[in-house]
Structures are given as C-alpha cells and as structure tokens.
Amino acid sequence: MKLSLIVPIYNEEKNIARLYHTITKTMELNQYDYELIMVNDGSRDHSLPLIENLSFKDTRVKYISFSRNFGKEAAMLAGLEAAAGDAAVILDADLQHPPELIPQLVNAYHAGFNQVVARRNRRGEPLFRRLPTTFFYALINNAVDVKLTDGEGDFRLLSRPVIDAILSLDEYNRFSKGIYDWVGFNKKTIEFDNVARENGSSAFSFFKLIDYAIDGILSYNNKPLRVCFYFGAFTLSVCLAYILVTLIQIIQSGIDEPGYFTIISAILFLGGVQLFSLGIIGEYIGKIYYETKRRPHYLIQHANIEEKDAES
Ligand code: UDP
Ligand code: MG
C-alpha cells in the first residue's frame, strides 16, 4: 500500500525542517511506502527553497508551487489531484496535526475504513478562538443539512475511492469540511489533544473565520433562501391580518388617526427583512458568478510532480 501525505504550506519556513523530520521518522519506523507532497501556496518567506532542497535530497518529497496564494482549499485540492497513493493523509505544516498519529489512521484504513478522521479536542485553546468556532458549528449545523463536528478538520486519511469522489466534485467554491461529509463512505474517528502552534501565527484571523462560516453555510444548499421565503410569508400574513383588522375597525368606528408608531415600525421592520433577504440572495448570485467564470482553482508556477489533471 502506498500512502500520499499532503501538506499545504503558506509561510511555514520555521516549521518545514521539523515537519520533515517527524514525518520521515514516523514513516520509516513503520516501513511505509509513501510520498510527501508539499503544496507551496504562494509563501512569501523562504518556504519554497527549503521544500526544493528537501526534494533534491529525498526523492519521496514532491512539491507543487502555486503562482500566488490561492488558499488552503486550493492547496489541498492540488495535493489530492497529484496524489498517486492508495490512500492520502492531509496534514498541516505547523505540526498541529501530529504526524505520529498517522500509523493509527493507517491501521483503521487496514481495518476497512474509507475515511479516518483525527479529531482534536479544544482543551487549552484560548477563549477568543474557542467562542467563534463554537458559534460557527452551532450556526452551521442548524442552517444546513450537512452535519459538521467541532474539532474534525482536514487532518484525515482518505482512501482512493474517497479521493476520487472528492475530485469528481469540481465546484469553484470549495468547502472541504462539507465535502468530506457529503461524499460519505464509512468513517472512523480518532481523538487527539490539541497542540498549540509553535512557530509563526495562524493564517486565519477572526474575520477570515467569519467569512469561512458564511461560505460554509452557503455552499451546501438553498436552505437560507428557504428561511427567507418562510419568514417573508409569515410577515406578509401578519401584515395582511393587521390591515384587515384595522380596515374593519375603520368601517365600524371611523378613521383611527394616530398611527405613527405602527407605520414607522412596519416600515423599519419590512425594510430590514427585505435588506436581509436581498443580502442572502446576493450572496448566492455572487457564488453563481464565480462558478460560471469557470476559472481554475489554482495556477502552478513550478512543480516536480506530473499533473494528472492539467485542467483544474
Ligand atoms: N495554509 C495554506 N494557505 C493559506 C493559509 C494556510 O496553505 O492561505 C496552510 C498553512 O501553511 C498550514 C495550514 O494551511 O499548513 C493551516 O493553517 P493555520 O495553521 O494558519 O490554520 P489554523 O491551524 O489556525 O486553522
Ligand atoms: Mg495551525
């Protein structure tokens, strides 16, 4: 069995050497046949020369280098497209996904599981990071049909059938967490303790996480539009009932003059509902706009690995 390890890399010069050593040690200890695919996602530091160096010294190291920063989703996609293994493991470069866990993932694969997820518990994570994520999962699990679990990220082993299934989805707006759940297949979860990032800082700021949450909610289905529809229908019937009641009152006892409060609240409320709905519709149109442009997910500047699918 051949294993493809995929590592997206964006400004990780301080982590690459240690990552390489930990991976090599673990893999050699277990005598795995493997390739290490490093995807340089437009790093602005010295990550690329370090990767190139490793690939000169070690033929198991392959790399793909993008022409600019295309984001982690694109980097993971490029890695999966290039992977030649019977299974792939995606892991972060900052050692927050301990390579020592890979044998456990592989064992579960041998036991017949197609997706083996390493789930981290958030013990020891700062509150300002934990709060938005908790909110994110609460929101997303209520807003869409796909179920996401906190702590289950991209650190996972995917068997060849799962890789092929994921690659068959060629949408432009990729949201991996949802895609893993959507493709299905039998899945096993392994837990590990959260590890703090040692060098450098997280590329995902608070606002990036919010953007990510919105993308996540909108990338599955049209449930938010459905919510707008029901909400609109509800307000419309309430307004109609109100109009009817007032009309009857007017017929019975003449015109009821002081109506300032009701008028202003109706205007403001309806205006708000309309703007909100319009915003959601706009988001979907934005997504359609990007999908119809059919642009590639990434552009490769250079690589020492053959592209299996030049088109993506
Ligand atoms: N990453 C990437 N492109 C980006 C941002 C991040 O390839 O635009 C990589 C990064 O090098 C790391 C992984 O994605 O290997 C996770 O990034 P990070 O540690 O910043 O995220 P966090 O652990 O905070 O979720
Ligand atoms: Mg990290």
TrEMBL record:
Gene3D superfamilies: Spore Coat Polysaccharide Biosynthesis Protein SpsA, Chain A
Transmembrane feature ranges: 227-251, 263-285
Keyword Magnesium attached: no
Keywords on record: Membrane, Transmembrane, Transmembrane helix
Residues annotated as domain Glycosyltransferase 2-like: 4-166
Alphabetical list of InterPro entries matching this protein: Glyco_trans_2-like (IPR001173), Glycosyltransferase_2 (IPR050256), Nucleotide-diphossugar_trans (IPR029044)
Record's protein name: Glycosyltransferase family 2 protein
